[in-house]
Fold this sequence. Notes:
This protein is mostly helical and about 375 residues long. The chain has one domain (about 5-375): Ribonucleotide Reductase, subunit A. It is built from 13 helices and no strands. The chain starts with about 50 loop residues before the first helix and ends in a 30-residue tail after the last helix. Mean pLDDT is about 85; it is low at about 1-5 and about 345-370.
Amino acid sequence: xxxxETKVKPLLFNPYGDDFNSQLTPVKFFESPLTKEPTGxxxxxxxxHPIIYEFVKLQKQRLWKADEYPIDRxxxxxxxxxxxxxxVFEYTLSFLAFLDSVQVANIxxxxxxxxxxxxxxxxxxxxxxxxxxxxxYSNILYGLFRESNEEVKRIFYLAKNDPELRHRNELIANNxxxxxxxLWNGLKNVSAQEYARTLTTVFAGTYAMEAVTFxxxxxxxxxxxxxxxxxxxxxxMISEIKADELFHVKVMSTIIKTLKPYxxxxxxxxxxxxxxxGTIKSYVEADLRFYQxxxxxxxxxxxxxxxxxxIKYLADLRLKLLGYKPLYxxxxxxxxxxxxxxxxxxxxxxxxxxxxxxxxKSSAYLSTELDDKVLSTFEF
Length: 380
């Protein structure tokens, strides 16, 4: 009997299960008898991996609603921009809207393979915030073109109608499509090795998108206020989203490191590391091509070298957070001044403050979630 025939079909409610079995895995591998799998009950009072549930509780402290942000003056300020700046803004918003749209779909698939209750709860919480981000981007665009739904549709559909943007989006979507295809075709027909490789690729891609890809888009929006002093309310919503995504960076890095010993039962540790690092590297290369095409070639005010150094700077930070050596050797943030003005400052952390620039209604994450510089030292 081959391994595909020996897989055990999971039950949504497993009355034979044991939620406190020390052999439980964070994600399903379909090889244990039902007596050694979870029941399906959320026995969160005694989680196997308590740090994941701590992340859930921290994330819930930052509930915010995009619909509560006034956007009445957005169009008035947008009209002050020249054609190049308008084009860059439209492309950036279209890309960010795509990222969160595909992220919601991807998290839905990840929720299917999460096994322990704390991971399932994190998946649901994570998805809620990504949905809120999608609403924020839609609201920003509607604030610009409330007189014309066709204009809003045009900008959204740059994601599929603009060749450069479509190519970038397809690279990301195809990475996530791998897990969806496995679920669609039936996991019982997939080898354990292929499943393990796919999980590694999808989780690494999720990390790369949240840890690197989003941030040049955020920086572009911040640059409008830095350069012109316009679109402050848009910046406030981006500030909220940026804080969420920075927190997700820490959570996903923890999940990847936690999953590694489980996944490397089926593939070698070397292959796992190569997939993770290779995936991040591929996102960096695609981000460089895309952002340099959209920003630098349009004389937006951000140079190709700044884009290259910022993306590589972020990539090195994120690789180190996973325990890998940096690839690019970029140690200085080329947008340090913008971060100082519009980001979360180390001083806020050291003083124990919960507020950050541009925050109006919701409190920020507890201390160490506020700044890139402290992600590597974050501990409970």
